[in-house]
Design brief:
Number of strands: 0
Distance between the termini: 18 Å
Radius of gyration: 17 Å
Strand content: under 5%
């Protein structure tokens, strides 16, 4: 049986933690709920996709990973200006609204940058685990 690398284990663990939190931002009630509904989830969404990309493309540099995620989510944001019937149908579901959004908002780009930067920093930290192993001679 192959031993799971610590950085991939931690990546999966972080994904398993932030995914339900990200969904919960859509139904959160309390202090800052409007911000949480509109922007808190966007930050977690970016981090989530940075980690998924990291699992799929293990050799992709962290800065490029974060850039690709920012680019893809920015394109999705711009696509919210487009309302063909098939996208309207998809966006009418909870998962569709959560994944693709419904309304174009310029301010979302700021939170995409913040989420991508946090994702980048997490990837840097995860990659440092390998460097620490090499120094320890493992």
């Amino acid at each position: 049986m192959r031993k799971l690398n610590l950085k991939y284990f931690l990546t999966i663990l972080i994904i398993l933690v932030i995914t339900p939190i990200g969904f919960a931002t859509k139904s959160y009630e309390g202090v800052g709920e409007r911000w949480m509904h509109n922007y808190g989830g966007a930050i977690l969404y970016e981090i989530f996709w940075c980690l998924i990309l990291f699992l799929i493309f293990k050799k992709l540099r962290p800065w490029l990973n974060a850039f690709y995620v920012f680019l893809a989510t920015s394109i999705l944001e711009i696509a919210q200006l487009w309302h063909p019937p098939f996208l309207v149908a998809v966006r009418s579901t909870f998962l569709g609204r959560t994944m693709f959004g419904t309304t174009f908002v310029w301010l979302d780009f700021l939170y995409y940058v913040i989420g991508s930067l946090i994702g980048y920093l997490i990837l840097i930290g995860l990659n440092r685990l390998d460097l620490q192993k090499e120094k320890a001679g493992e």
